[in-house]
Design goal:
- The complex is a heterodimer.
- Chain A is of the alpha/beta class.
- Chain A has helices spanning about 10-20, 60-75, 80-85, 90-100, 110-125, 140-145, 160-170, 195-200, 225-230, 270, 280-295, 295-315, 335-345, 375-390, and strands at about 30-35, 35-40, 45, 105-110, 130-135, 150-155, 175-180, 205-210, 235-240, 250-255, 325-330, 350, 350-355, 365-370.
- In chain A, the strands form three sheets. Chain A has a seven-stranded mixed beta sheet, sandwiched between helices.
- In chain A, strand 8 (about 205-210), helix 9 and strand 9 (about 235-240) form a beta-alpha-beta unit.
- Chain B is globular and about 40 Å long.
- The two termini of chain B are about 20 Å apart.
- Classes of the chains: A alpha/beta, B mainly alpha.
- Chains A and B meet through strand 6 and helix 7 of A and helix 5 of B.
Chain lengths: ~400, ~110
């Protein structure tokens, strides 16, 4: 058996994707013009699939902070914080994130993926129990492969499914850690966090919430679902990323646990990889200031979510269950999803296509992510284009029924 | 489990397994859940993934002989966990290959409750 034979099934599926003439997983952005536009295939393309929720990638103050940091401290750290030491900026960033959450401790990682991978796989070990939502991100699943703890999945966003699994553990020894996400990345739905937290309290389980897609978007001050659900004090660990709302790259974990810092010498994805370069740390620190200083960006984001979600729903598209910065559009099958995606790109609109096995329940989706910097005109244009393609492909009816759409938020 | 045996192929599969089943073992099982019940429930979940006319039997290798993908297997396990009130850790699922092994795992876990 050849090394690549085990990927035969995937290769076949990938071939299906590529024969449409464009490879959705190897798109080249010839030039990125702004948070909402890039040149792709030689034409100006509207970006509605880049998780750039606040549009801060081109924020002048963040860009200037990064440029200044490069001039002052160079391009990179050339090693891990264990080996090469921390720059003052790393420590300041950690203090600022901890203060943002009102928590005692913060650890910064080089990517959000590494934050989940390292923290989750290290918090629980042999004899412990890790309980994860069935629709968890790949970084959480990969952490499961690295831990010696027993891992059990519960049904997506279903506190009673979690409860039956915690109940079955009975008086078995070992810690229980429950991992949840603020907003799920494929369909944009939020966890019923308060209900989950109640179940966790009842069974003495620790709670870790990944706010990757909800940082900035949810909560009165943008701290995420933990804040909007009013359970910040009941969440033992909050993980997040700098690569979405904050417009750069990196991850973090905050906690009040007095022994938290021991993770700095136990979490391998922290210890054995190079730390964030000064420019990234500087732009993230500035982006966090912008998030705090400009709550109107959150309002703009949700206004745009309402425009896109309600506009598509009114045309008869089947969408994720609630308003969210991610709007998932259900399509009947993989080939249709890929064809639809390709037609969108040809029409100058970039979204993500998500097909099995990367999606929950084998669904095929066009995954759109909304930006505070999208203009109403851009989003109306997108709805118009999607409606046209949807009718051509028979995904929605050519004569839409008029119906009142009420947003969930 | 009220909608058991709704499809004809299912019924056939279940009958086939009953014939091959180890009766002595079945009699020893606690709490009124027989091996037949467990296998029938597994087959009910697997029926949509049957490849051609080949029946689903105890020796069927779930990931290889059927058209089910790894995610759907994990989702099926989650349903079975609730039907039989047991939890099967993911590392245990990874070691399960056949319908028989899955049934035995469920029965073992039930016995240990």
């Amino acid at each position: 058996m050849g090394l690549f034979d085990r990927h035969a099934g995937l290769l076949e599926a990938y071939r299906d994707v590529r024969t449409t003439g464009a490879d959705p997983f190897q798109i080249r952005m010839e030039r990125v013009l702004s948070p909402t536009e890039a040149i792709i295939n030689g034409r100006k393309t509207l970006l509605v699939g880049t998780n750039n929720y606040f549009g801060l990638t081109f924020d002048p103050s963040c860009m200037e902070a990064a440029i200044e940091a490069i001039r002052a401290e160079g391009t990179g750290t050339t090693g891990s914080r264990i080996a090469n030491g921390s720059y003052s900026e790393h420590v300041l960033l950690e203090e600022e994130i901890a203060a943002f959450y009102g928590m005692k401790h913060c650890m910064v990682f080089t990517t959000g993926y590494q934050a989940n991978l390292g923290i989750i796989s290290t918090l629980v070990g042999q004899g412990d129990h890790l309980l994860i939502d069935a629709d968890s991100h790949a970084s959480i699943y990969d952490a499961c492969k690295m831990t010696q703890a027993e891992v059990v999945r519960f049904k997506h966003n279903d506190p009673s499914s979690l409860e039956s699994r915690l109940r079955r553990l009975g008086d078995k020894p070992g810690n229980r850690l429950v991992v949840l996400e603020g907003i799920y990345s494929m369909l944009g739905d939020s966890a019923p966090l308060r209900e989950f937290v109640d179940v966790c309290k009842k069974y003495g389980a620790y709670v870790l919430v990944d706010e990757a897609h909800s940082l900035g978007a949810l909560g009165e001050t943008g701290r995420g679902l933990c804040e909007s659900a009013g359970v910040l004090d009941d969440c033992h660990f909050i993980v997040g990323t700098f690569s979405k709302t904050l417009g750069a790259i990196g991850g973090y974990c905050v906690s009040n646990d007095p022994d938290f810092d021991i993770l700095r010498v136990t979490v391998r994805s922290y210890m054995f990889t190079a730390s964030l370069p000064p420019s990234i740390v500087a732009s993230v620190r500035q982006a966090l200031r912008v998030v705090k200083a400009r709550p109107e960006l959150r309002k703009q984001l949700w206004d745009n979510v309402a425009t896109l979600y309600d506009g598509l729903a009114a045309q008869g598209f089947k969408l994720g269950p609630e308003h969210g910065p991610v709007v998932g559009v259900h399509l009947p099958d993989r080939m249709l999803a890929i064809g639809f995606w390709r037609a969108m790109l040809d029409a100058g609109i970039y979204v993500n296509v998500a097909v099995p096995p990367a999606t929950p329940n084998g669904v095929s989706l066009l995954r759109c992510s909304v930006c505070a910097a999208h203009t109403p005109e851009q989003l109306q244009h997108m709805i118009e284009i999607m409606t046209g393609i949807g009718r051509q492909l028979g995904v929605i009816s050519a004569t839409p029924k008029l119906r009142v759409v009420a947003g969930n938020r | 489990m009220s909608d058991l045996g709704t499809g004809e192929p299912l019924l056939r599969t279940a009958q086939l397994i009953v014939e091959n089943d180890d009766v002595a073992n079945t009699l020893e099982l606690p709490r009124l859940t027989s091996r037949v019940d467990v296998i029938r429930e597994i087959c009910r979940h697997l029926a949509p993934y049957q490849a051609g006319e080949r029946p689903i039997v105890g020796e069927t290798i779930i990931a290889k002989d059927l058209t089910i993908d790894s995610l759907a297997i994990m989702d099926m396990v989650m349903e079975l966990e609730d039907s039989f009130d047991v939890s099967i850790p993911m590392n245990v699922v990874a070691e399960i290959h056949t319908v028989d092994q899955l049934a035995d795992t469920i029965l073992d876990l039930r016995a240990k409750r």
